[in-house]
Amino acid sequence: MKEINQEEIGTLYIVATPIGNLGDITLRAIKVLKEVDIIAAEDTRHTLKLLNHLEISKPLISYHRHNEDIKTDVLIKELKEGKNIALVSDAGTPGICDPGEEVIKKCIEEEIPVIPIPGACAMINALICSGLNTKEFEFIGFLPLNKKNRKEKLEEIRNASKTIILYEAPHKLETTLKDLKEIIGNRKVVLARELTKIHEEYIREDIDTLIEKAKDLKGEIVLIIEGGERKEEDDFSKLSLEEHYTYYEKKGLSKKDIIKQIAKDRNVSRNEIYQKFIGKN
Ligand code: SAM
Q1: 138 and 200 in one domain?
Q2: Are residues 88 and 151 in the same domain?
Q3: What are the pLDDT digits (tens) for 208-243?
Q4: Nearest to 75 by CA among 47, 37, 44
Q5: Which of 47, 81, 87, 140 has the highest CB neighbour count under 10 A?
Q6: How many domains does the chain have?
Q7: Which domain holds residue 251?
Q8: Burial degree of 73 (CB within 10 A; 0-12, 13-18, 19+)
């Protein structure tokens, strides 16, 4: 039986590929890659190596972050003409810190079927073997590089009680760990490295210890951060606005940051809080 559809309108298959170990390609992924008309790939040369290994030969279209707009239109046109397309990224699941979101949204708008072909994804595999809470977690991906956005994201991590998952490049690891330490304090972190590869490793330490080791840690990295404990003192509904303000003032936050944080804790607009503290230094 054919895996793919034979209708007049094509289907977009979102195909996960290995994150290191080629044995992690699924039987269904191979079947779909063999049967589609076109493969859209983040890096066609990279995907060609996988296809050669699987002895599959198909027309390839490049679909990467810098041509997503133009190539989305090209893929939509082909799908409307009845072509079935498999979208793959360099490694793992497309759309997870990889191109894919644009064309998927457009397909949904145009009522073109989109089907996932599940497989490897670094963050899920790092999480499941981390030993940390897997019931509630938040995937952040790469921290923003922009200073302001980065600080906001780090503050979000500080306030989260869920497990947090980050992706990071090895040459930025030390800086990221130092930024984490500065804003969230010395929490427990699991560093999952080179998953599914020969040098696969889990390092379960606190942030301070990881900072010392960071320079020697090469390869692909996922950071799993233990969720912060919700302390009694963090139940802000019990505090008056003044007490809430003083709480953050003692932590050394600026007036602007205090207002932002109170608004967030109480789920009200910043302006509402700002009005209450006009004239306060
Ligand atoms: N789409 C991919 C997925 O499904 O996980 C992620 C692509 S993102 C551009 C690349 C990042 O994923 C790397 O910087 C690293 O943080 C993480 N990653 C990918 N492969 C990995 C591996 N084998 N071990 C650890 N982390 C990995």
Answers
A1: yes
A2: no
A3: 999 999 999 999 999 999 998 766 556 787 788 888
A4: 37
A5: 87
A6: 3
A7: 232-276
A8: exposed
Question: Is 92 a pocket residue for ligand 1 (Cβ < 6 Å)?
Answer: yes
- 60 domain-assigned: yes
220 is a domain residue: yes
How far, in Å, is the centroid of ligand 1 from the Cα of 192? 10
What is the per-residue burial (b if ≥16 Cβ within 10 Å, else e) of 149-179? Answer: eebebbbebeebebbbbbbbeeeebbebbeb
**CA 167 to chain centroid:** 7
- Same domain assignment for residues 178 and 194: yes
Q: How far is CA 241 from the centre of its chain?
A: 35
Q: Would the pTM of this model clear 0.70, i.e. be above it?
A: yes
pLDDT reported for residue 38: 98
Residues 169 and 218 grouped into a single domain: yes
Residue 4 covered by a domain: no
Q: Quick one: average pLDDT of 100-128?
A: 97
Q: Are 100 and 121 in contact (CB under 8 A)?
A: no
* 203 close to 193: Cβ distance less than 8 angstroms: yes
Q: What is the strand order of the sheet 85-88 is part of?
A: 60-62, 38-41, 85-88, 12-15, 114-117
Q: How far is the CA of 92 from the centre of ligand 1 (A)?
A: 7
Contact criterion met (CB below 8 Å) for 46 and 90 = yes
Q: Is the CB of 222 under 6 A from ligand 1?
A: yes
* Any ligand 1 atom below 6 A from CB of 96: yes
